[in-house]
Design goal:
Shape: globular
Strand order of the largest sheet: 3-2-4-1-6-7-5
Protein name: Histidine phosphatase family protein
CATH class: Alpha Beta
Largest sheet: 7 strands, mixed
Oligomer: single chain
Number of domains: 1
Strand content: 15-25%
Distance between the termini: 32 Å
InterPro entries: His_Pase_superF_clade-1, His_PPase_superfam
CATH superfamily: Phosphoglycerate mutase-like
Helix content: 25-40%
CATH architecture: 3-Layer(aba) Sandwich
Number of helices: 5
């Protein structure tokens, strides 16, 4: 069984004269990222490998989330292809993951993460699926399980949405 976790960057700021790649997290984002990291650690949602977009907001999201995870730190690699990547490219990146990695996390952006999740999920709880279809807010986490044993074998509608969690569901009013 394989597990894919899709973690959207936390809420970012829009400073004037700052390139999109260099946008930092906002105050809300700086609070939401560690909250999600603590949740992941407590729920046992610690991937074997984390691939992070090179954008500042995704790197800061993962840094803050992983600091809150304590000793449960997975291997992390920055992957430039994840920056604003569409569904097809994200699926290609996933397919390159070695079989020795049973649990993979992508830390990335909208709309690619939501499209990827919607297209990969074929089953799961109706409430989580409905929420995912409607909106993939900042700092949200989609956890998708697959029966396949190799990442290149992942197909559309072959995954089961195990859970879809947002900071708001954890009791904070920090997502959008």
């Amino acid at each position: 069984m394989l597990r894919l976790m899709l973690f959207r960057h936390a809420k970012s700021d829009w400073p004037r004269d700052v390139d999109d790649r260099d946008r930092p997290l906002s105050e809300r984002g700086r609070k939401a990222a560690p909250q999600m990291g603590r949740f992941m650690a407590e729920a046992g949602l610690v991937p074997g490998l984390v691939l992070v977009s090179p954008a500042r907001r995704t790197r800061e999201t993962w840094e803050r989330a992983s600091e809150a995870m304590g000793d449960h730190l997975p291997a992390m690699r920055e992957d430039s292809r994840l920056y604003l990547a569409p569904f097809g490219l994200l699926l290609k990146v996933i397919g390159e993951t070695p079989p020795s990695v049973p649990s993979l996390m992508l830390v990335g952006h909208q709309p690619g993460l939501q499209e990827l999740a919607i297209r990969l999920v074929g089953s799961g709880g109706i409430e989580d699926r409905t929420a995912l279809d409607a909106h993939f807010p900042t700092a949200a986490l989609a956890v998708i399980d697959f029966e396949q044993e190799a990442w290149p074998d992942i197909l559309p509608a072959s995954g089961r949405l195990e859970r879809f969690v947002t900071p708001k569901l954890l009791g904070a009013s920090v997502d959008d």
